[in-house]
Amino acid sequence: MCRVFFVQQTECVPATNIKFIVLGDWGGRVENVNDKRFRDTFEDVFDSPYFNIPWYMLAGNHDHRGNVSAQIAYSQISSKWTFPHYYYKQTKRIVGSNVTLDILMLDTVILCGQADDEMVQQPTGVSNQTFAEQQWAWLTNELATSRATYLLVAGHFPIYSIGVHGANHLSYAKTHAAATHI
């Protein structure tokens, strides 16, 4: 359990058996892989030994206002930051068992388009249809072929939500169609 104060000071209480963290929409509007924002708002904030575990990143609308490819490239610099591609799979095995977990990390901005927080609007629609279709095909295949005990799909824009932005109607139909092939 952690509380963050003024972005620079972190007080941590040890947690039991935390093996990784999934973080989306970091808000890191970075310009390049050497941007000081990585150090100021990630490395220096989460510098406790309790945070020396993999952080599996996925992009959200704030990240897409910056350079997401720089965030992906940062995986080669940071020992914690794990962001190999816009969308990717991580497979985890529960220690001492045969139980597995597949986590499919999606880039829902590529799938649905950008959203403006100030306007409280839904995503605007796909800007690169080819890239979006490649991700949908990848998701459909992963859903159909996963042999994990548990399967988790993670993305920034939720399919269902009672929050201010509401449910994401652009991704619901396609995600539902992909999931019915399981």
First and last CA, distance: 35 Å
- The secondary-structure element order is EEEHEHEEEHHEH
Share in β-strands: 15-25%
Number of helices: 5
Runs with pLDDT <50, length 5+? 1-13
Q: Which strands sit side by side, in order, in the main sheet?
A: 3-4-5
Write down the Rg: 17 Å
What's the domain count? 2
Helix/strand layout:
Elements: E1 2-5, E2 9-12, E3 21-24, H1 36-43, E4 55-58, H2 68-73, E5 81-82, E6 88-93, E7 100-105, H3 108-112, H4 129-145, E8 150-154, H5 169-179
Short recap of the structure:
The chain has 182 residues and is an alpha/beta fold. The chain contains five helices and eight strands; from the N terminus they run βββαβαβββααβα.
Keywords:
single chain, 182 residues, alpha/beta, 2 domains, three-stranded parallel β-sheet, 5 helices, 8 strands, 26% helix, 19% strand, globular, disordered N terminus
Kindly describe this structure.
With 182 residues, the protein is an alpha/beta fold. It has helices at 36-43, 68-73, 108-112, 129-145, 169-179, and strands at residues 2-5, 9-12, 21-24, 55-58, 81-82, 88-93, 100-105, 150-154. It folds into 2 domains: 1-84, no CATH class; 86-182, no CATH class. It has 5 helices and 8 strands, in the order βββαβαβββααβα. The chain has a 3-stranded parallel β-sheet, with no helix packed on it. α1 links the parallel β3 (21-24) and β4 (55-58). The radius of gyration is 17 Å and the shape is globular.
